Amino acid sequence: MESLPATKGPDALQSLLSAAQKLADGGTIRDEIVSGIYGVSAEICAEAVSYQDRKKLNSTYKLDNIATSRIWGFPIMLAILGVVFWITIAGANYPSSWLASLFGFIEGYLTAGFTALHAPDWLHGVLVLGLYRGTSWVISVMLPPMMIFFPVFALLENFGYLPRVAFNMDRLFKKSGGHGKQALTMSMGFGCNAAAILSTRIIESPRERMLAILTNNFVPCNGRWPTLILLASLFMAGGAATGAFRTLTTAAVLMGMVLIGIIVTLSVSWVLSKTALRGVPTHYTLELPPYRRPQIWKTILISSKDKSLNVLTRAIIVAAPAGIITWILGNVFIGGESVLNHMAAFFDPFAHLLGMDGFIIMAFILGLPANEIVLPILLMGYMSSGAMVDIDSLGSIKEVFLSHGWTWLTALNMMLFSLLHYPCGTTLVNIYKETKSLKWSVLSAVIPLGIAIGVTFAVAQLAQLFGWV
Amino acid sequence: MTPYTVAFAGNPNTGKSTLFNLLTGMRQHTGNWAGKTVITAEGEFTHNNRLYRAIDLPGTYSLYSNSADEEAARDYIIFEQPDVTLVVLDATSLERNLNLALQVLEITGRAVVCINLIDEAHKLGIEINLEAISARLGVPVVAISARNKIGIEALLDQIERVASGTYTAEPLHIAYNEEIERGIAQLLPMVEQTVGRSYPARWIALRLLDGDESLMASLQNRMNSQTIPDPKEAVRHGVTACH
User: Fold this and answer.
1) Under a CB-based contact definition with an 8 Å cutoff, are residues A432 and A234 in contact?
2) What is the pTM of this model?
3) What's the topology of domain B4-164?
4) Which residues are in the FeoB-type G domain (chain B) (predicted)?
């Protein structure tokens, strides 16, 4: 004991540590400590815990043997995802049209009221055609799918399925050089990329955390689901298909989008971990908590309040002023053309290379603050540029698109662009706050943007080359 | 009267936050730990006209500094020294959950062990002898269901007993193998002299043996920012300091 030096004050800690290291002499101490603790735990449990029926306990293991098996894991995951989409699309269809006709009906009265009051045309334009129409679209297009999708997803989460998804995905992430927990932060991204950036804190290694941050926006978030769902159901179901088959095709297309997102996530992780972020993945333990019967009503209420209403409020708050601005831009004329048309015309040549048009690119640029408003801005842009269509059903939204020269390729590329392009403003701010690095924050916008442009360009050129459009 | 502080520790997925929300209700706010990127919640509740400040520590499997979460939980228990550390365990997988409780008890005896999800365990046919566990651990053990509000009053009573000092715990000390115990015995006097009596010396010695540098960094920070407890006090308590 006397041979070990001991002093007072903070410097002493260092000498304490080196004294301890001399004593520890090797690396097996941790194992011994852990086995000491585990031994006592096991002893106490053997003494105090009794099991009436071991079989009951095994139900979780049995279920996990299937849900996380090498053969069935992925098919089950895809099937569940497919069913969730199917329920969402099938269920949202009617309420969406009802809401749209309701808002269209009210708009008639509003217009009549403005006429009766002899209100000037521009006021009617700003308030009814801009503000009211913009927000009512957001509500009728976004609310029903959200009211179904979020609760169903939350039920799945409460049941305990998401950790199994992470478990299944783990192998793939390890192979691509990332951390297994990236599967969890990715799942979080399906809800909200901005929140998922914060959730990457669970990954300790800075290298692996950066991979998770940079690739998070390749999974569609709350703000992008409505765009994907709407475009898929309007354009991807094929002309002749009706009813159940139509819904099924739409669900399959959405699932394809998710799969593309995951493939891009893995590929980008792989490339980065071989280049800018080189390293070997670290190990970790993933707990599979027992399956639990979800508290159905509570889950539905909470997810409706916390997710659906929040997303909708955010969309309306941003969409309302955006509606007014878009209307003004569309109705201020310079040299015979509206400002909006000038802007769209500016982006048009570039956009056509990507199989889209200038309005779409503009909507994505103006939609930087929140992905929720990309679609409303696009619709308002189209509407204010002359093609006046009464929006009283979802079908007429399709007419707006068609009258602006949309084909299935336009819809597909807009979906791909939405899936792959830069994350929203909030997410970018979070990335900067978390990484404290301007370089990586800029890269987290530039890499996805580059991929989005590359993929849409390739698809557009291929489709035109083979004469599919 | 200053409120008692109660820190909520537990593995992830044990219903720790459900219990926290149940007790604090709307009286809570979330924020970041000072200097740490770990989110935590703080709230208040009252029991027998006494105010309690509740702190929801991040859910962790251990206090061995494997992640920022574990460091935050560990630092709170060691440095803030809450009046009660409530360890929430999952009744359906007690054996794994007990590990965290044992680690907490190595740091502080001011603890209450709360076995949550007891109704789930009953459904699965798991019977738990609370007295036996309490006798071994040396601290109060209460079975509850936060979800169905079972056993909450009894839990609050036990928290009160430990907080007010009515219950003095004799927490279980884990006897490690000879090599570790010898190491601890050698380091203990030095640790006590260096960090003072206010921190759990045996546990710190154990962590030193494991080469826990993150704990060292936290201690260093702590000691730079405040005066070091007088080593003479250690002598008065009958512990030999050696030079």
Assistant:
1) no
2) 0.66
3) Rossmann fold (3.40.50)
4) 3-165
